[in-house]
Amino acid sequence: MWHQTYAPIGGSIWLSALVAVLPIALFFVSLIVFKLKGYVAAFLSVALSVLIALTIYKMPVMMVGASFVYGFLYGLWPIAWIIIAAIFLYKLSVKSGYFEILKESVQSITPDHRILVILVGFCFGAFLEGAIGFGGPVAITAAILVGLGLTPLYAAGLCLIANTAPVAFGAVGIPITAMAGAVGVPATAISAMTGKVLWLVSLGMPFFIVFLMDGMRGIRETFPAVLVAAGSFAITQYFSSNHLGPELPDILSAVVSLVLTGIFLKFWQPKHIFRSDGKPVQPTTQQHHICKVFVAWAPFLILIIAIIVWTQPWFKSLFAKGGPLAFSSFYFEFESISHKIFKSTPFVIEGKSADFGVIYKLPLLNTVGTAIFVAGILSIFVLRVKVSEAVHVFGDTLKEMRYPILTIGLVLSFAFVSNYSGISATMALALTHTGPAFTFFSPLIGWVGVFLTGSDTSSNLLFGSLQQLTAHHLKIPEVLTLTANTVGGTLGKMISPQSIAIACAAVGLTGKESDLFKFTVKYSILFIVLMGIAISVIAYMFPQIVPHV
User: Fold this and answer.
1) Spatial distance between the Cα atoms of 473 and 301, rounded to a whole number of angstroms
2) Residues whose CB is less than 8 angstroms from the CB of residue 120 and which lie 6 or more positions away in sequence, other chains included
3) Contact assessment for residue 312 and residue 306, using Cβ atoms and an 8 Å cutoff
4) Between 152-162 and 497-506, two packed helices, what is the crossing angle to 10 degrees?
5) pTM recorded for the entire structure
6) CA 45 to CA 42: how far, in whole Å?
7) Taking the alpha carbons of 342, 347, 353, 356 in that order, is the dihedral positive or negative?
């Protein structure tokens, strides 16, 4: 049995936090200053975290090793599997030649890159985030935008930024429902508060993306269409999160925004067509039969259907214990750390102790990655790709993904070593000692959590109880700090090493993670500062808008 300690250096939380932050600082320096490849930066960071866990936190060697292996395996399955399947699906579309028809059909809505990024990166990405999460939305949308003519770095960076708004409600609301269950607060209350905080982000993000692409001129020229897209998304997200709960805001907002914006663009187009590559739009002289257009879109329609099926309760019940497909799921308990690592106060109520159950789950069929892969297999026949060519495409996908897979594995190892040793808890705990200023730093805790784990769900489970206990101590609404954690986490998604590796892999920029990180990090820092101010203003000036529980 091993109990975490959070101030191992002379009992000083600030000195301990200074050491705890070193692996993150090393990752930043490795990418921004030394411009190292992603897997090298991840390796250096995890090596330093292992050293700190062993020497400073006195975590037993076997436990550190098991944490590393568990994290690496989790990075491979389900996360890397989702990305492999998504890129395979996209490459099949390109190989078949039908992606050119899909591209022309999209450009028939509008050839303007500024609006296409909103439709594909923001709206369609939000739909995918609401359905699958785990980095899949960025991989799919960035790959599509590259096919539509955006440069790879541009497409990846803009999709990472666009993915900010929907993350809190991603994967059918799991980030919020998981945290609510862990801290004993109604999910509907956190969902409602998240909707109240995020609506401004959702409304402003499309305009910010256009500004990044083409400055104020871009906003002036596209304002009507972007207003329709952003306004319909933000309004739908607000009302669905406040009245329906956390499961559907992303999907409903995305569908409403896509439909309304698509209809609007039938009657209005910007006078000046902007192309980020500087190339003039080539008018399409060939008119494709409606059947060909349908076939071109079929892989992504099949993908949507597969995701819907995979997320249904009746389908999941097939894999439950005693179900007909239960044999396809495997479970491996890491006995050296499972139920042997214990949290300490203030992460648990004094007198009680919470431990970590560490069971590695390997669901071969009941995972989103397999749903995407099945969509790819079905698409082989719909697109009429030869089986031998499809096998070659899958082999190329695995070959291209070898370094991103290594990066993702090392990043998750870093996350779990930090979590199980108490390193990440030390950083968060230091911020709770800031007194009334904690409301400003509260989103930063979620931001750090998602940077470490790549998952808003993991961040909420990791720091939810800390946010709740600190709120009680400061006599501020617990729903507000819990919301701050999940919203802050959404702003950390665009710089999470896991997200960076996935985005680079999707657009063929493996090894260029430092360039993408430099593109997004300044905006992530800006947004988290603004969010800290917003949470503080709500806490001390408008506490009445926080739902009572």
Assistant:
1) 50
2) 106, 141, 144, 145, 148
3) no
4) 140
5) 0.89
6) 5
7) negative
User: Please, are residues 360 and 70 in contact by the beta-carbon 8 Å criterion?
Assistant: yes
Cα dist. 506→379, 404, 494, 503, 528 in Å? 19, 9, 15, 5, 26
> How many whole angstroms separate alpha carbon 418 and alpha carbon 53?
8
Residue 321 token pair: 């214990």
Q: What is the pLDDT of residue 82?
A: 87
Give tens-digit pLDDT for 289-326.
899 999 999 999 998 899 889 878 899 999 999 999 99
CA dihedral angle for residue 517, residue 519, residue 521, residue 523, rounded to 10 degrees: -160
What mean pLDDT do residues 68-96 have? 92
DSSP character string of 378-421: HHHHHTT--HHHHHHHHHHHHHHTHHHHHHHHHHHHHHHHHHHH
- Rg (C-alpha) for the chain, rounded Å, is 23
CA–CA gap between residue 214 and residue 327 (Å, rounded):
53
- Residue labelled with tokens 């269409």: 225
The per-residue pLDDT for range 469-479, each reduced to its tens digit, is 899 989 999 99
3-class DSSP state of 329: strand
Classify residue 250 by burial, with Cβ atoms within 10 Å: 0-12, 13-18, 19+: buried
* pLDDT of 352 over the 70 cut: no
Residue 22, judged by CB atoms within 10 A of its CB (0-12, 13-18, 19+), counts as middle
Bridge-based pairing of strands 359-363 and 2-3 is unpaired
Q: Measuring CA to CA, how many Å separate 225 from each of 115, 208, 540?
A: 8, 14, 36
Give which of 105, 84, 507 is closest to 298, Cα–Cα: 105
Per residue in 151-192, pLDDT (tens digit) is 999 999 999 999 988 999 987 788 999 899 888 999 999 999
Q: What is the mean pLDDT of residues 225-244?
A: 96
The amino acid occupying position 77 is W
User: Which one, of 190, 311, 160, 169, lies nearest residue 252 by Cα?
Assistant: 169
Q: Would you say residue 549 has pLDDT above 80?
A: no
The pLDDT value given to residue 248? 87
Q: Which two structure tokens, joined as six digits, stand for 375?
A: 């969509």
Three-state secondary-structure class, residue 515: helix
Alpha helices by DSSP H, listed for 266-401, are 290-310, 313-317, 368-382, 387-400
